[in-house]
Amino acid sequence: MNRAPGLSVRLRLTLSYAGFLMVAGALLLATVWVFLLRDFSVVSSRPGEFVPLRSVILRAYAPATAAVLAFLLVFGLLGGWILAGHMLDPLTRITYATRMAANGSLSHRIRLPGREDEFRELADAFDTMLARLEAHVAEQRRFAANASHELRTPLAISKALLDVARTDPDQDVGEVIDRLHVVNARAIGLTEALLLLSRADQRSFTREPVDLSLLAEEATETLLPLAEKHGVTIETCGDITPTAGSQALLLQLTMNLVHNAIIHNLPEQGTVRVSTGVRPETVVLTVENTGERISPQLASTLTEPFQRGTERVHTDHAGVGLGLAIVRTITRAHDGTLTLTPRSDGGLRVTVELPAMAPHTDR
């Protein structure tokens, strides 16, 4: 924004301090004149001769008054300039940090010393914002790099298959087509997951009443054939859990959690438990599964994009590594919290806590 040049804040504060000091000094001198010197009328300078005392005092008082006011003006300007500079020094540091951030340096921090006041509160809030922004930018860069790698892989495989089919006349065309179909389906799944992640992060959805318990039932029924194929038993329980949000996104969240719990489970006789519950101000969806032991350090990274547990698996149902990243984004878009806790006997417990919807009352 183009603005016309004006006086600096420091200069305006200096003039304000000096002007206030001048007014206070003038009022003080006027008070002395009105209450102490005005009532004297005459004085005798010679026997039989009288001179008005007021005029004598005025001639002596006026130069002193002018000298005092001049001193107050100089003192006010000098002192006001120093005080204004001292008071505005934190603002100068905040402005410098803002310019550094605008130029792309998000690692710079103000770290304003001293006791708590308005300037330090502003500086601390700005440092917190810079830290979150730096973490977000770093996360986006990692995400872009991982997404590019993941998208490049199926494209490279497709190109290799086509090159083989073109150069080898004895190659089975049906086999090439089948493999291309699998690779293409994987690329489509990854693209759709990226679009869903973007949509959820932008919060571009209409909020409506949603019951998490019904979504849990729908997800488990849909994924029951997959669970049977992997020898996993699904157990469901819970109460009615009313919340507000996008039914499609919350169903996707539930599907992702149940799908992950089935895939990352024991080789046989695994178990997945899906439960819902109500707390004083929130509703809770919990999905836990048996499986390999997971360290807390590994569990804290599972919501990062393209993380697939202890290793990068490539089965038919392994997904694209965005399942829990999508869950985290959908949860955040619904003002909820996501908690991943390793189970002591192996496996993972994932808890999604969302704001409860206030019950409607009829009048």
List key phrases describing it.
8 helices; two-stranded antiparallel sheet; Heat Shock Protein 90; 3 domains; single chain; 58% helix; 9 strands; 363 residues; alpha+beta
Summarize the structure.
By secondary structure, this protein is α+β, with helices and mostly antiparallel strands.
What's the architecture of the largest domain, going by CATH?
2-Layer Sandwich
Instruction: Report strand %.
Output: 15-25%
CATH C-level category of the largest domain = Alpha Beta
DSSP helix fraction = 55-70%
Secondary-structure element sequence?
Answer: HEEHHHEHEEHEEHHEE
Strand order of the largest sheet: 4-6-7-9-8
Structural class by helix and strand composition? alpha+beta
Name the poorly predicted regions: 310-317
Average the pLDDT over all residues and give the rounded result: 79
- What spatial form do the alpha-carbon principal axes imply? elongated
- What's the tally of helices? 8
Q: Whole-number radius of gyration?
A: 38 Å
Main beta-sheet strand count, sense and barrel state: 5 strands, mixed
Q: Give me the CATH fold name of the largest domain.
A: Heat Shock Protein 90
Count of beta strands? 9
